[in-house]
């Protein structure tokens, strides 16, 4: 028997990385900016703990296009690298300096927000560049700047160079098939997509700013303009702050920062903030349902340490919350892996059930804090809540505290209050409490009126998923059944009032009933004559409940 180690050569692995590591070539920019951000964060950390004896200052990351030279440059003022470090971190594919850093500074840096993970990100540069140059100078005293050049083959050159300032410059010589990344609009688009909330300011070009006129300036004085750095990101988005720092207005502004085309304020926000058993922050919004709801485009966005990962959150966020908007940020969400991996990931599964619980808790506090406001918004949020009740047991279990059951008259009941109210009057011969509901107030108007005449409460349950919700409630609540207001079941209820004396005697009624039945000529309907004194409908037609429901499902 022989044992040995498989020798993976870079020659084999390079084309693989190029082709398969990322399905989307554009993410190279996210990766390089993440590295620049990490390099800056590391420097901040090292200066804080006194290990780096340099001024941290206000470092920025700069992205530059040089169309003539066909280069795209990402420049940072972070820790930089010595020659040995370049050999160690860059030349060793799949060795992550980020992971090493976290391992070394385990206790102090665990919440520093380091993005890197797998030691593969840097090589994504070769998806779009035919040659990559690194110019770098370490923060360490007496370190010499170095220049590393590689054309995507396993050979590279490393030499000393002139660079006086600390930090790293990654120069991509863009390949002919990737010239789109030399276009300003394309780079701006990518920066907006992935780095809108990056931790470190990112400069992309300059912009003109108009200075205010000095006091007492002449009326025809021209205001002075200056060129300033064009910083594309907000380094301090709402979800990184504490809820106590934020007012409703701040949340609304953040909502529009996320979805600039949304003009309507969201109904509610939910600020997520947890550090055990995993790290997760975020803000979710209940949007106002309406014409401008763009579910396709404006979705929940997933971030890792303020870097955009994806807005394909199916499997991470429970289905019923897909109608919400907002941001979820977790360092435990792997940046560069496939969707199927994401969904199978243990941390991701826990995130999903945590979010469900958190949303349920928030609904309880919203209804308790301002019942009136909550009732007003119920119509807009009910679809999410009802869908959640059907699909997530954890959510359903708590829903008695926040799910409302509105009547056609606009009274909103919580479950227990509803049952307490109707039990004495709406119990059938089998002892079941029967909840009457309408799903179309206009079409079922006369049935609703006649049920109300009899002293019954009629709920208005008009979401498309109501048949499923009813099924769920009937299966889990004891001694309760639902009957649509036009179903024949209503005739089995024990009436509250003694029946009034009808003007017709029994045989007249029989005759009349027969006549009506003959003229309708449909076995599915039951005819019932009403007390002619008290209702504007002389008789009602009802159908078996099961037949109704079959049609609705
Ligand atoms: P990861 O970020 O997952 O660690 P990468 O392949 O993206 O892996 O980068 C490899 C390593 O190279 C980093 O961990 C870091 O040590 C080093 N590095 C990359 N870019 C820079 C930079 N701009 N400044 C300093 N070090 C860098
Ligand atoms: Mg990286």
UniProtKB/TrEMBL annotation:
One Pfam family per UniProt: HATPase_c_3
Which keywords has UniProt assigned to this entry?
ATP-binding, Chaperone, Cytoplasm, Nucleotide-binding, Stress response
State where ATP binds. Answer: 31, 35, 76, 81, 96-97, 168, 339
Chaperone listed as a keyword: yes
List, alphabetically, the PROSITE patterns matched.
HSP90 (PS00298)
Molecular function terms, GO-annotated = ATP binding; ATP hydrolysis activity; ATP-dependent protein folding chaperone; unfolded protein binding
Keyword Nucleotide-binding applies:
yes
Q: Which InterPro entries match?
A: HATPase_C_sf, Heat_shock_protein_90_CS, HSP90_C, Hsp90_fam, Hsp90_N, Ribosomal_Su5_D2-typ_SF
Report the Gene3D superfamilies cross-referenced here. Answer: 3.30.230.80, 3.40.50.11260, Heat shock protein 90, C-terminal domain, Histidine kinase-like ATPase, C-terminal domain
Describe the family membership recorded for this protein in Swiss-Prot or TrEMBL: Belongs to the heat shock protein 90 family.
PANTHER family named in the record? HEAT SHOCK PROTEIN 90 FAMILY MEMBER
> By what name is this protein known?
Chaperone protein HtpG
Task: Give the organism the record lists.
Answer: Epilithonimonas hungarica
